[in-house]
Amino acid sequence: MDEIVNKVANSGVVSIDLETFYDASEKVIFDIKPHLFMELMLKEKDFRDFIKTNDWSVYKNKIVAIVCSSDAIVPTWAYMLLALAMEPFAKRTFFGTISEVENLLFAEKLAQLDLAPYKNARVVIKGCGEKHIPVNAFLQLTALLKPVVKSIMYGEPCSTVPLYKAKAL
Prior knowledge:
Blueprint: E1 13-16, E2 27-31, H1 44-53, E3 63-67, H2 76-86, E4 92-95, H3 98-111, E5 122-126, H4 135-145, E6 151-156, E7 159-165
Parallel strand pairs: 1-5, 2-3, 3-4, 5-6
Antiparallel strand pairs: 6-7
C-alpha cells in the first residue's frame, strides 16, 4: 500500500494567520455628544464636573474608542481629560471609531513582527477565520513581507490565490 504524503506540509510554505494578532479585549465607544451643552458645545465647568463625578470603573479592562457623533467643535483638551479619567480603569483609550481602533491595534502588532523567519519564504496569508480582520491589516502585512519573501499567497495552504512572486536574480 502506498504511503499517503501530505504535500502541503512538505511544501515549505509558511502560513501567517492575522487572527493571532487580534486583541480580544472588549472594545466600547464613549460618545462625548451627550455631555455637551445642547449636544453642540462644551461648557468647561459642567464637563469638568462630569469628569469628577462619573463612574469610570465601567471601562475596567476595556479598550475605549472616544468619539463625538455630532458636528460640535470639541477642544482637544476635553478628549485628553476623558482619557485621563479612564486611564486607571481602561486597558487603552483611543480617539476614533471601533474600526479605526482595530486598524491601530493591528498596526502596532505588525510593527513588532520579526520578518527574519520569512526571509526567502513562500508565505500564505490566511484568509478565512472566526474573527473580523480589517482589510488594512492584510495590506500592511503584504507591504511588510514583499521585500523579504519569495512569494505571497492568500487563502489556505491547500487552496491559495497567488499575489506576488519575487523576480529571480
